[in-house]
Structures are given as structure tokens and as C-alpha cells.
Amino acid sequence: MGIQLDEQQLGPVYSLVLSLAERKRALYAEDLKLAVEEALGRATPGRFALRDIQVNVQSGMSSTAEVSVSDHGTTKTGSASGDGTLDAVFRAIQQVTGVEAELEDFSLAAATQGSDALGEAVVTLSQGSHVVVGRALALDVVEAAASAYVKALNWLVQPEREPPTLRFPASETETGATIGDPHHR
């Protein structure tokens, strides 16, 4: 696949690939590529980190979610109900972090093949004129959505942090794409 990792990057990638191998019937090249991207993204420091999610869904009733999020290393747990699983999860994350944000956009798609495919979630949040994007992958789509939400919150609480930039060879394109770019949707 042509991916070069240093020793510091190898640990998180190896752990995530092992976790995927334990949970999936088959791993494909795309699974491995996305696992590398996700593991390297997780290595990016941020104030908040998702630790645990528990959801309760019952037809005809409000969904509830309990989340644990670490804030500078201290884990906080909170719960909320909502009009659906993700609404409950997002409300619980806001309650635990204390960060108010407007959900501007949300998308969820299968990133690989099969019923045990990796789910890719993209969450766009705003606070006033500040708009940020969080992206995450996981086997569980609720976990992917929650992780993407937390990553977006990290951009909101640390706006001075420079988002990572992907540079492509000039033969492919003349401009780079910036992840977390407040002007890119």
C-alpha cells in the first residue's frame, strides 16, 4: 500500500488493526488503509476523547445514551435522551463536555464492503461563525458518529490549532485539501 510509519505511529495502527481483525470476518486492503488513517487521526492530541457509549433504544420511546468522555485525562460520564439514538448520544456528549454547538451537517456511510463494514461518520458543528468538521471510522456506526462529534468539538475548543493538511502531487492537483478546514464542507 506504500504507507510509511515511524515507530511512534506503528503502535496505534497495530492496535486498531488487531481490534478489527478480532471483530471482522475478513479484512480488506481498504479496511487497512482506513485503519491507518483513523489510528493516525486518533494520535492527534485533543482536549476530549471518547471512552465509552451505552445506548438504549425502544420502539415508540425516546432513546437514551450514556457516554464517558475524558477531558484532559479526567473521565466524565453523563446521560441524555433524544429523538433517536444519535440525538441522545450527541446531547450526552454536549452535557458531559459543557460545549454547546449547533449540528450543521451529519453523514454516515459504509467505508468498506460487507455487513461488518467500517462506518464512516462526518459531523459538521458550528459556534457562531466558526464551523468545524470531525470525521471518524468504526465498526459500530454509533461509535463512529460519537467519535466524529468529539473530534469536531476538539476543533471548536482549540481553534488556534492548525488543522492537518494533505498535500497531493502537482500532477494530480495544484491545491491541497485541509482536514478540519472551517471553510471546507
What do these coordinates show?
With 185 residues, this protein is an alpha+beta fold. The protein has a domain at 1-43. The chain is built from four helices and eight strands. The chain has helices at 7-23, 29-42, 85-97, 141-157; strands at 48-56, 63-71, 74-82, 102-110, 119-127, 130-138, 165-166, 177-178. The chain has a three-stranded antiparallel β-sheet. The chain has a three-stranded antiparallel β-sheet with strand order 4-5-6. The protein has a two-stranded antiparallel sheet with strand order 7-8. Strand 2 and strand 3 form a beta hairpin. Helix 1 (7-23) packs across helix 2 (29-42). It is globular and about 40 Å long. The protein starts with 6 loop residues before the first helix and ends in a 7-residue tail after the last strand.
Topology:
Elements: H1 7-23, H2 29-42, E1 48-56, E2 63-71, E3 74-82, H3 85-97, E4 102-110, E5 119-127, E6 130-138, H4 141-157, E7 165-166, E8 177-178
Antiparallel strand pairs: 1-2, 2-3, 4-5, 5-6, 7-8
Strand content: 25-35%
* Secondary-structure element order, N to C: HHEEEHEEEHEE
CA(first)-CA(last) distance: 28 Å
* Helix count, DSSP H or I runs of 4 or more residues: 4
What structural category characterises the helix and strand content?
Answer: alpha+beta
Mean pLDDT: 79
In the sheet with the most strands, the strands line up as: 1-2-3
Strand count, sense and barrel status of the largest sheet are: 3 strands, antiparallel
Which stretches are low in confidence, meaning pLDDT under 50 for 5 or more residues running?
A: 163-185
Number of strands: 8
- How would you classify the quaternary structure? single chain
Query: What sort of overall outline do the alpha carbons produce when their principal axes are compared?
Result: globular
Helix content: 25-40%
Provide the gyration radius in Å.
17 Å
